[in-house]
Model the fold of this input.
Amino acid sequence: MDYKIASISGDGIGPEIVREAKKVLEAVGSRFGHSFAYEELLMGGCSIDAYGEPLTDETLERAGKSDSILLGAVGGRVGVDSWYELPPDKRPEAGLLKIRKGLGLFCNLRPAILFEELSRACPLKDEIVEGGFDFIFARELTGGLYFGERYTKEIDGVMTAVDTLKYDEREIRRIAVQAFEIAMKRRKKVCSVDKANVLDSSRLWSKVVAEVAKDYPEVELTNMLVDNCAMQIVRDPKQFDVILTENMFGDILSDEASMVTGSLGMLSSASLGEGSFGMYEPSHGSAPDIAGQDKANPIATILSAAMMLRYSFGLLEEADAVEDAVKQVLKDGYRTVDIMSEGKTQVGTAQMGDLIAGHIR
Ligand code: NAD
Done:
């Protein structure tokens, strides 16, 4: 098959890590007979330098016409880069908000994977994480408390602040469908997390999720209260496959989960819209402190490319091949500086990409 990918390298380490992800995709293409064509697009500080704004309407339109987007990271250093003298809506990070909104990317996927080889970076006890774990959040990204009506005013002589948590059934259904579709490509388990013992929005959430579940009889659905889920992630992370949740719960829980996986340089993510279109990017930022030094860990971006293969292109065997290659390279003892430990072999960004691509070929 031929795939057209919008490649947005961005700023800082973005170009270095995207280059390695493409190297790995080329290896996938040659082994499995696919071709990946890239359209290079600008977003973030580099777009401000070229066009005076972090994401032009034309770039947004072109990105939306691709099969999916591979993104590095955007942003620079406040107080150092002149981009931060601009008003907030003109700064590099505003490009991210514009592209997510403009392309209707409402489902945030964040895997929490602990590779056995890196288990020393995990703060949990050995007996809890032995053998590693692998689950993923499907977090609603464009609704709920962060987007509801809010105000602060004096009511009856008392300063009062109000935030509104609102979801309609359509918003819940579309993220639930994505979560079940993702589960079908994994171990076929969805855990829907809410606070249905207190919140009306959560009761509607669990009702709609149960309706959607009827269309996926192969998938096992469980429900968990958010406070219990926060405990279960550290007590027994291996029990989870797909955690489906609303915006704020997902924000908090996915950060908790990323902490127990160890290194930022390993964490991939994706934002999906309706259908198979998605934007794939590492969870970390543009790391300007190490940009251009061949020090960045490209694995988060490489694993984001694997997610693209799995969730946007339906290429499950190919995605497995990338993930297996990452595991093998770690097993062989190769580490970038951020995950380096005693007795291992330190490599740079480009060599890490070469090693992973080499295993796929
Ligand atoms: P960061 O994630 O860029 O860096 C935090 C620390 O982790 C730094 O010490 C960095 O060197 C290290 N690090 C990050 N990724 C790494 C990798 N792949 N390999 C090795 N080390 C890595 O966060 P920050 O320093 O707070 O932000 C830097 C810039 O990135 C800011 O402009 C911020 O706004 C932007 N940012 C962008 C995104 C995005 O594009 N999605 C996300 C977060 C931050």
In short: The mean pLDDT is 95. Residues 73-76, 93, 96, 264-265, 281, 284-290, 296-297, 300, 338 surround nicotinamide-adenine-dinucleotide (CB under 6 Å). The longest strand covers residues 2-10.
